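Let us practice reading a record.
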Amino acid sequence: MSHDHDHGAHGAPGGRRRLAVAFGITAGVFVAQAVGALLTGSLALLVDTAHMLTDVAGLAIALGAASLALRPPSPRRTWGFRRAEVLAALAQAAVLLAVGVYALVEGVSRLIEPPQASGPGLLVFGIVGLVGNVVALLVLAGGRSASLNLRAAFLEVVNDALGSMAVIVAAIVIATTGWQRADAVAGLVIAVLILPRAVRLLADSASVLLESTPPGMDLDEVRARLLEVENVEEVHDLHASLVATGLPTISAHVVVRDACFRDGQAPPVLDALQRCVATQFDVTVEHSTFQLEPAEHARHEAPTHA
């Protein structure tokens, strides 16, 4: 009997359109805030502008990764460029982390010796940044769960919006009280907003690259369910990983009754195993590879198989 392997077309043109629009908006806001940072001398606006620069670069990378992800597999790259989105998210997280650390160091320095910042000018550019970020958020919101790439872009724009709010608050405090350290405090607030999300995104991306078990999947439970399939006697060399967002994989060696290879029961066993991992868990696995083998085959396997 034939065994179909149709795992669907991987790619999201809608996601690319969202990224392209968000990129255009963010690039425009970046230019405006860069001018504002030069005119006002504000740390908060400078850090927010640096953050915007990472967003512009990150969205450009994300857009490129989303396009690469649509390329079909080849003999050299059997998964195509699906993992490009993970590399893009990892690069964004690393840059965000660097910006956050810089903001912390510079913020503490400016708390000690605060430079003069223009409150009214700061307010204008803070509002410009907030409006642009809100529009970009509305564009990305509908697709943020579609991929790690879109999630990374959405989180960065969320941080930008919160950073713009911090800039606005600092501008109001400086304009009404003259307390110049408000600018440094706002810069530190932005850093505190950046760092936890950068670390989380870095960890998630690294987990995929290290081929860790997909979140929400318990391999002990998977093994137990596979052993419940009729004619299955043992499951070993069980592995699970996440190639990219929405593409978990499982492979295993499955020992079945010797008679299955003589009475035609092996194909139904294979079908039952693949139905099991595709329907019985919170993480749906459509790409599974099972090696059916008789009990005596274990004598020919490497001792590292378990």
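A brief commentary: Confidence is low (pLDDT under 50) at residues 1-12.
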